[in-house]
Write a structure and sequence with these properties.
Number of domains: 2
Catalytic activity: L-glutamate + ATP = L-glutamyl 5-phosphate + ADP
Mean pLDDT: 87
Radius of gyration: 22 Å
Number of helices: 14
Family: Belongs to the glutamate 5-kinase family.
CATH class of the largest domain: Alpha Beta
Main location: cytoplasm
Subcellular location: Cytoplasm
Shape: globular
Number of strands: 17
Low-confidence stretches: 219-227
Distance between the termini: 18 Å
CATH topology of the largest domain: Carbamate kinase
Strand content: 15-25%
Pfam families: AA_kinase, PUA
CATH architecture of the largest domain: 3-Layer(aba) Sandwich
């Protein structure tokens, strides 16, 4: 883990401009025409900037939406399909179209690309997370630009990222990125929806939690993509909490982002950056169950230095195994932490309410351990 002082806007933008490993996320609306079809000129303009950065030695990952939008034309649809099976079929056709344009565009600059399609399950399971991490790191080591997208052809509404904004933050953590750039069709965060009178662009955010609480933003879905400013702010929150600086701006401004110009909105990272393992627990792992902590245990966990002991747990919910991620809730039902369980769910009920000495006497030495050790616990 590293510690650093809170950065100024100039320092944040300089960090992004000089970043060694960068994740760039581009939304469907930035790659399509007003009618929703893939805009080859927009794709080419984006590739031009990213390829030049890659040739300068920047390790670049592109998280690109647009597969479903790219499938509109070939399948003869006038608008984005609304049912899951047709969306999946459209994505299956469109992903190939999208990749063809990326491969051709980057090849003109002598840059190779590789396709990575992820589902939420790939990041929720530790082994799959590590596999994705190894593949992405090896591609970067080989000088390849990974083109990442959610596997829309297989993902369902029940198990999906929901938008590529969140996916981009998980990818940024996977590759230990130095910066995240979120590209959209709006040139940054505004004090109110941009169409409202008096709305002003926010150039720098030092405290994203304050912004989320006090600035009104839209969360509507466009005709060609999913998400909105709400999802981008949530993505920025995850990234800066992971110690990654973020710039949010329009795709037209991507070139000047790499020059450190004052475009869009820059978000300062938190001073502390956790290990890759703790970041996985906090942001990617999908909880399999819930442990309900009493008031004293909840306060101890929130203090940041305590494990969750059986003596302070009043209820176990769900069916999970040792090593699985679980929620830690207070008695009011609030999620206060996530962690990795030390025991199977079926083993826990007999341990509840007992301290370490009692557990040794009643169940044996192997049960005289925290239900969730503090090293495997991340506060929310």
């Amino acid at each position: 883990m590293t510690e650093r002082q809170m950065q100024t806007e100039h320092e944040v933008r300089s960090c992004v401009a000089s970043a060694h490993t960068v994740v760039v996320k581009v939304g469907s609306s930035s790659l399509t025409t007003p009618s929703g079809h893939l805009d080859v000129d927009k794709v080419g303009a984006l590739v031009e900037v990213l390829a030049e950065a890659a040739k300068r030695g920047v390790r670049m990952v592109l998280v690109s939406s647009g597969a479903i939008a790219a499938g509109f034309g070939p399948l003869g649809f006038d608008a984005r399909p609304t049912d899951v099976s047709t969306q999946q079929a459209t994505a299956s056709v469109g992903q190939g179209v999208l990749m063809q344009h990326y491969e051709t565009g980057f090849a003109r600059h002598g840059v190779r690309v590789g396709q990575i399609l992820l589902t939420a399950d790939d990041t929720m399971h530790a082994s799959r997370y590590r596999n994705a991490q190894r593949t992405l790191q090896r591609l970067l080591d080989l000088g390849v630009v990974p083109i990442v997208n959610e596997n829309d052809a297989l993902a369902t509404n029940e198990i999906r990222f929901g938008d590529n904004d969140r996916l981009s933050t998980l990818v940024a953590n996977l590759v230990r990125a130095d910066a995240l750039v979120l590209l959209t069709d709006i040139d940054g965060l505004y004090t109110a929806p941009p169409f409202k009178s008096g709305a002003k662009r926010v150039g720098f955010v030092s405290d994203i939690d304050w912004v989320i609480d006090h600035i009104s933003v839209g969360g509507t879905v466009s005709g060609v993509g999913s998400g909105g400013m709400v999802t981008k702010l949530e993505a920025a929150r995850i990234a800066v909490s992971s110690g990654i600086p973020v710039v949010l701006t329009s795709a037209d401004n991507i070139a000047v982002v790499f020059e450190g110009a004052s475009t869009g909105t820059a978000f300062a990272p938190a001073p502390r950056r956790d290990s890759a393992r703790r970041l996985w627990i906090g942001f990617a792992a999908g909880p399999r169950g819930t442990l309900i902590a009493d008031k004293g245990a909840a306060e101890a966990v929130l203090g940041g230095k305590a494990s969750l002991l059986a003596a302070g747990v009043v209820e176990v919910r769900g069916d999970f195994s040792a090593g699985d991620p679980v929620w830690i809730d207070d008695e009011e039902g609030n999620h206060i932490a996530k962690g990795l369980s030390s025991f199977d769910s079926e083993e826990m009920p007999n341990t509840l309410g007992h301290d370490t000495t009692q557990l040794k006497r009643l169940l044996g030495e192997e049960y005289a351990h925290p239900l969730v050790h503090r090293d495997n616990l991340v506060l929310l």
